[in-house]
Design brief:
Helix 2 packs across helix 4, helix 2 crosses helix 5 and helix 4 packs antiparallel against helix 5. It contains five helices and five strands; from the N terminus they run H-H-H-E-H-H-E-E-E-E.
């Protein structure tokens, strides 16, 4: 248990701040998803049906975007609640938007089989900046993009 705490205190101040912000956002979004509709969470974002061209961002913004991705994914591993791919995407999107860094997040769907062998629908969410994955890269290729959302 002390290992992760020691690692946290060895982080530079910027990463500590991003990690703490990510923890709070993951919690508030997780709670908010149980109280508000998905539509309320994407208000103000531009909806695209399918894939969309990535807005270009400066190199310094890309470095910040990578740091945000690191913070969200790392914090998600330590939350006592389940921080799903959608929760992670929404947290990263808000952190990026606050820093005026554009990006696109995707919602994908795939068919699967439930434990009782009935067909089921699977979903996944991932976020990219400059065609680089920020969150949700693992397994995304198994899903067909059904919607994407961008912000200025």
């Amino acid at each position: 248990m002390l290992g992760p705490i020691r690692k946290f205190f060895k982080l530079d101040p910027e990463r500590k701040g991003l990690f703490i912000q990510a923890c709070f956002l993951l919690g508030s979004i997780r709670l908010s998803l149980s109280r508000k509709t998905f539509k309320a969470h994407i208000a103000g974002l531009e909806l695209h049906h399918g894939a969309v061209l990535q807005p270009l961002s400066e190199a310094s913004n890309q470095k910040t975007a990578r740091s945000v991705g690191w913070a969200v994914q790392t914090a998600a591993n330590f939350t006592p609640w389940k921080s799903t791919c959608l929760v992670q995407v929404l947290a990263a999107q808000r952190m990026l938007k606050k820093r005026d860094i554009p990006g696109v997040f995707y919602i994908g769907a795939a068919s699967g089989v439930a434990e009782d062998e009935r067909p089921t629908l699977l979903a996944h969410a991932w976020l990219k900046c400059n065609d680089e994955f920020i969150t949700g890269e693992s397994g995304h290729q198994q899903y067909t993009v059904i919607s994407s959302f961008s912000w200025p």
